[in-house]
Amino acid sequence: MSVDLGNVAEDSARGTLVLATGNTISLVISAIAVFIVARLLGAERYGVYTLSFTVPSLLLLFVDCGINQALTRFSASLHVKDEEGRLANLVRQGVLFKTLISLFVFSVALIFSDSFASYVINRPDCGVYIRLGSLAILFQTIFNTAGAIFVGLDHPGYSAIATGIHALVKATLSSLLVYLSLGVMGAITGFVLGYVIAALFSAGLLIIKVYRPLPSRKPEGDSIDLLKMMLRYGFPLYLSSLLFGLSSQLQSVILAIFSSDMAIGNYKAALNFVFLLSSLTGAVVTSLLPAFSKLYHDRDRATAFFTLATKYSALFILPITTLLIIFSPQLILVIYGASYQSAPLFLSLSILPFFLVGFGRFTLGGFFNGLGDTKTTFKLTALYFSVFVVLAPLLTHTYDVPGLILALLLSASVETILGAYVAHTRFHAHPDYNNVARIYGVAVLSALPALGTAHVLPLPPLPTVLLSAVIYLFTYLTLIPLARIVDNSELTSLIQFTNRLGVLKYVAAPIFTYALKVTTKTRG
Q1: Nearby residues of 359 by Cβ (< 8 Å), 6 or more positions away
Q2: 17 or 442: whose pLDDT is higher?
Q3: How many angstroms separate the CA atoms of 469 and 517, rounded?
Q4: Of 129, 266, 284, 521, which is the most exposed, with the fewest CB atoms less than 10 Å away?
Q5: What's this model's pTM, rounded to 2 decimal places?
Q6: Domain-by-domain residue ranges, the chain?
Q7: What is the secondary structure of 83-124 as a DSSP string?
């Protein structure tokens, strides 16, 4: 079955915008809630609160087994092939498997909560908190599974709404219950109820809006074979996730050995901005998996879409990355105050891996996974982990926190370069390096007027950041068409697409309209 590349690109772009918007709103709400809860609890009780979720978070790693990404990938491919019977069976088996595993893991947490409290987090009195917090395992599993299916079936809006509901309920109830003097128990209860309500909402949407409307819900295909297919596809991705999770934990261990509390605090403060940018790139990665899955049987179009996706990912991510780097001192000062003196340097260094976007950093995973080559994804992740394990202790011991960040950058660089080589040699897929080089050049040149303005005008930090960001984006949007990175037909298509985005069109459409006017005037 032939799939129109333009439709795939439009679906992917829509999914990225919707998920990125939902993630950003949820992050803002969650950040406000974290500040309120931490302030009301105080440092000591907030520490107990965060420690109480250590065990549930670790146990949650053993629930997925790669099923979520398999559901996204195969629901997309079965839907585009109109195999609704197999799709219905796939959804049933995936949800049932995840539910049973989560019940088992929750039972383990419930039975051994006191032991975990004593021997894992060294807080014997926290058993009751672990039991309560472990309830989130059940509902978070339902929430995440439904979200994976929504994305695979081109309903990212459902996932974004559910994510927003989760953040809002968790933020409201946690803050309220702590304010009512329920302490750590109140904060954990609010956290759990956020997932309970979001999971029930997601499950209702999944049944009413997705499952019931399927033209055929009669089971097709052997259920065991479908489950094996999902596990065979998803398990390498699951191992990759475990390695990434382990590397994250190793960062904390290495820093605890070689760095001071002050340096670690500055680094963690800088990472909050990195997490925000990661949520935006995560929306790109999530949306690309179903897109490549639809092109599974048409490798030529899949490679063409890889080139297109890398180009637009670079257009989207590079200006944000550049702004974060050049205005890191002002951002840190506005958000955290003058005491975080090392955080601007740490932020600028930590952002550098995002500059690999033009080489496929955030599109290679979706490309390999969408084409079913999850083993390559696992091998690349294992390479990343191996390089990090070797370099991180040595570089952190020598250069402290910047050494750790350098180890992360080198690991990401090796992984991305080898991934790009494999994509090129095995699938003949590669970025349009000519266009990508122009995007890098425009991203850097656009910073000059912004930096000049910031230097000349003696404004406070916040107005400096806002004014400079506007000048930077105006310059960037002017230079992009002048550099012939996008042409009239692309911009016209983007305007037509953004006009179907509802409220988002009032932000996106004027941007592309301005770029089209620049292109038209300069090219006649």
Answers
A1: 310, 416, 417, 420, 431, 436
A2: 442
A3: 21
A4: 521
A5: 0.72
A6: 1-221, 435-523
A7: -HHHHHHHHHHHHHHHHHHHHHHHHHHHHTHHHHHHHTSS-G
